[in-house]
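Subject: design request, 186 residues
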């Protein structure tokens, strides 16, 4: 397996294109079938179903590609996918899965101590597999990070909300951006 993000994302893009094409061909073949006893009006509507499946694949496996100036800092680049993901979720209710670029606070002692404090809160709960992508922006008064909750936890959203509320109560002056990430390991 390649360790190149570009090759992996290109492979996923090609796979989604191939899958979409196969589904379209099958849908077109089925739509052309003659009417029968179970389907007296024919199979023409199957094309709508296959188009819906293809659109779901495109939405789920879609990627956003952006160009950034080479003068941007990692901290500035980190904000871009977060804003895009949040905007898409708010406007369309679609969770956008992209290759994330994260900046972590390495020089700011306040942010480093805040991260440790929040890690203590997050990992005090059973079922937390990981916390990553922590970034504290004091100028915007935002704290962002992702958590991965084990699928074995019966109500993952409830645990997420409990953690969100607990962190928010401790850091009232900050807007929180906590993403419930998926556990894709097995």
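Subject: RE: design request

Done. Sequence follows.
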């Amino acid at each position: 397996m390649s360790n190149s993000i570009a090759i992996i994302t290109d492979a996923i893009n090609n796979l989604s294109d191939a899958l979409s094409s196969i589904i379209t061909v099958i849908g077109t073949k089925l739509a052309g079938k003659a009417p029968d006893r179970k389907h007296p009006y024919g199979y023409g509507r199957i094309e709508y179903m296959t188009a819906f499946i293809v659109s779901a694949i495109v939405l789920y496996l879609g990627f956003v590609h952006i160009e950034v100036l080479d003068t941007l800092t990692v901290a500035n680049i980190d904000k871009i996918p977060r804003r895009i993901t949040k905007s898409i979720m708010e406007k369309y209710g679609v969770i956008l899965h992209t290759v994330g670029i994260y900046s972590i606070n390495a020089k700011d002692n306040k942010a480093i101590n805040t991260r440790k404090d929040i890690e203590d809160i997050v990992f005090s709960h059973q079922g937390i597999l990981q916390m990553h992508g922590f970034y504290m922006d004091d100028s915007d008064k935002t704290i962002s990070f992702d958590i991965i909750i084990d699928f074995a936890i019966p109500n993952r959203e409830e645990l997420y909300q409990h953690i969100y509320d607990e962190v928010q109560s401790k850091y009232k002056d900050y807007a929180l951006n906590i993403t419930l990430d998926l556990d894709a390991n097995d």
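The radius of gyration is 22 Å.
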